[in-house]
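Summary for the funding panel

The consortium committed to producing paired sequence-structure records for every protein in the target list. Below we show the first two records in order, beginning with the earlier of the two.
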Amino acid sequence: MKWTDSLDIAIALIDARPNVEPERVNFVTLMNYVVQLPGFSDDPDRCGERVLEAIQQAWIDERK
């Protein structure tokens, strides 16, 4: 997975962190969660606020 795979990342986060409320996760923690996912293989330095916002929103949407 790459940073641009926000939906895939969101689904993986649901599986990896089922008890976490994505609305309460700050961007530093979210970034750490993402880079720890199995199958994630992008450069952590290529992540920005817009990417994290997209991932967080997809995570929120997919949990509904």
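The next record, for a separate protein in the list, is shown here:
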Amino acid sequence: MIEIKVLGPGCPNCMRLENLCNEVVGELGIEAQVEKITDINEYGKYGVMLTPGLVVNGKVLLQGKVPTKATLTNWLKNEG
């Protein structure tokens, strides 16, 4: 199972990233858990200083922007 964490306080980009993750997971039909982390103290554990942050299986893949759907799809295919 792929573990996906979206780090962000709930801003529009954070919500967009969370929705995009759920959409791609559903389209790929992969087993994944998408978790939204809003606690700012947790961000530092991953070294994320800009939100939204995307952590997949413990690795920070992105921070400060929302990836394209194609990019996210590619990342999740490679993790699965």
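Regarding this second record: The longest strand covers residues 2-7. The mean pLDDT is 95.
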